[in-house]
Design goal:
A hairpin with a 7-residue loop joins β1 and β2. The protein contains 4 helices and 2 strands. It is 49% helix and 10% strand. The radius of gyration is 12 Å and the shape is globular.
Length: 80
């Protein structure tokens, strides 16, 4: 799982607005806002959070550390 802080940080590393992030992940803007505003790990029952995480990973974001005690992200873009 990932934390709201990691989602915000990943989006920031990619330079995406929340609207662009919503389009990239195929979920609504309000969902992105709700996920990013959550405390800790955002609640999700339908796999929506997994789609959001996958969209960031596809763009080169790696989630590192523990999502609660030491959340982190790293950008690994392929050259070119």
């Amino acid at each position: 799982m990932v934390s709201a802080a990691q989602l915000r940080a990943g989006r920031a590393l990619l330079g995406l607005s929340s609207k662009q992030f919503a389009e990239l992940s195929g979920v609504g803007w309000a969902t992105i806002k709700r996920f990013e505003d959550a405390d800790g790990i955002p609640p999700s029952r339908t796999g929506t959070l997994e789609r959001v995480v996958k969209a960031l990973q596809t763009e080169g974001i790696q989630f590192i550390g523990d999502p609660i005690t030491s959340p982190g992200v790293r950008l690994n873009r392929k050259p070119g």
